[in-house]
Every structure is written in C-alpha cells, then in structure tokens.
C-alpha cells in the first residue's frame, strides 16, 4: 500500500515499504480548545450507517482496478453520492502501473455547494491492493478484501455525504473518492507508483480549489491510533492542530493521540506536493508491529471482523464537526 518514512527530528529519513512509527516527543499545542460558538448544530454521525457502507463495499469483493467488482462498486458509489444530493463529477483516466499494466481507473467527486469559493476537501481511496504482500502475511494467495484499507474511509465519507445532503454547513465541500492508490510497488519501489488517482486529481483539481483537505485511510479498526502523520505536520500543521484539538475537546483523545507517527506516502502527499492543497492524513499507525500499521494491513485478514463501529464514529464525528465549525469560523 503505502511507502513510509520514519520520522526522526524533521521526519526525513526514508525507509522502504513500511512505517516503523517510533514516535518522538509529543506534538506541541494539542490541548483542549475553548468551547466553540457554533452557528449551526453539528449533525450526529451515525456509526451504524457508516458500518453498513463499509460492509456493502466488502460484499462487492476486492475492488482491484480493471475487475468487475471494481466496476460494480464504482456504479454504486456514484449512485449513493447522487442520492445524497451531491453534484457528481467523474474523472476517468488510464495510468500505467509499475508492472506495465494499464489501469482504467476513476476518481469520483461529490461536490456540495459547488458555487462556493471557500471549500474543504475530504478524501479516501476506494480501490484495494491486488496482492497480499504485508511482511506479516503467511499466505501468498490470500485475498485482500480491504474492509479497513480503504472501505472504512469511504464508508465514513458516505455517511458524512448523507449528513451534508440534509444539513448545509455553510461552506463548500468536495468529497473525493480516489482510485488506484493501492497498486504501488512494494519493497523499495518508486513511491510515485502509489496514489495514481491522487496524482491525476492533483493535476486536474476542479475549480474553485479547496482551501485545505483531510484524507481518511484505515479508520475502522478497533482501538485505532491516529498519531500525527509526518507529511501532515510538515505541509498542514495548522490543520493538524485544529483537528487534534477539536478531537480532544470532543472526548476522542484516545484515538487522536498526542504523538508523532511516521511520514507516509499516501494520497495526501500528492495533494500537498502537486496540487498545493494543505492536506492531513488521519491514518491508524502502530508502534507494536513491524510494518508500522495494523496487523491486518495488506493481508487476507482485512475483512469485516476488524471493523469497529466506535472507531468509525470517532473519525466521522470529528471530521463532520471540523466541517461545520470551520464553516462557522469557530474551529
């Protein structure tokens, strides 16, 4: 999935296919925020709804680019965003994978209040890894169902989209479901082989351009540890501070922990470096595994058994509150 960088000091030192996640000193200025003045009530995030959206994706089977499961999932995602009142734009593109395969991929963009200049981007990837290649995987023929990586992020965003269809926060929101993120070359391969949909989107951002972005990746597992990801802190430190303070003030500090994690070549890397959109990555990182991620990462164990509704709610409620409070100027 993601090439990772170990953060030491300024999060510079490169490693190959996994994140060691040996956290440094706690990130400063992550403390409970003063009680905000809300212009509009923040809707309640429905964790059961989000869970159902995750399960629906998994039931399609692995969403590997160029497969029938991928095509069926695309049609369903487009239909759901339209059902939830979004103006849907499709970015079909062909990309060459590291192994020479031509990937016929699609970014799906659901826009709320597309006429508004002031916008926030919320993103997740909807494809799955074509092979089970985690260092912990002992079955080379295992199928990666991608319940956590990345159906969980998509499920959270679909529930947020449903809420936005019922309650206007007063700011433009672009929900971007990115394709071909997880077809990259592991074990020291070129990091540009990852995030192909994000790279295409970064070169073709619909106007008006979002002011900042939030990426959700692996946000469904039990007892998730959302440490501050390195590129998020480098390119969007103000957004990191706002979101982590808000999460703590809402009682989700056990998920949005006050520690540094690894710097990960995920979709947000290209949104930051190619599109110039300050974007953070909310991603589950672990210090107790060799990969730096959850044990089911890139394995046949990434199925609905690992998904926890409380984690979905923690990620979704914080992001939903971020949108509404940013719109009100109280974040």
From TrEMBL:
Pfam families per the UniProt record, alphabetical: Peptidase_M28
Signal peptide segment: 1-23
Domain Peptidase M28: 107-322
Keyword ATP-binding included in the entry's annotation: no
Keyword Transferase in annotation: yes
UniProt xrefs under InterPro entries: Peptidase_M28, QC/QCL
MF terms in GO: glutaminyl-peptide cyclotransferase activity; zinc ion binding
Annotated TM spans: none
SUPFAM superfamilies xrefs: Zn-dependent exopeptidases
Keyword list, A-Z: Acyltransferase, Signal, Transferase
PANTHER family: GLUTAMINYL-PEPTIDE CYCLOTRANSFERASE (PTHR12283), GLUTAMINYL-PEPTIDE CYCLOTRANSFERASE-RELATED (PTHR12283:SF6)
Name of the featured protein: M28 family peptidase
Organism name: Neolewinella litorea
High-level lineage: Bacteria, Pseudomonadati, Bacteroidota, Saprospiria, Saprospirales
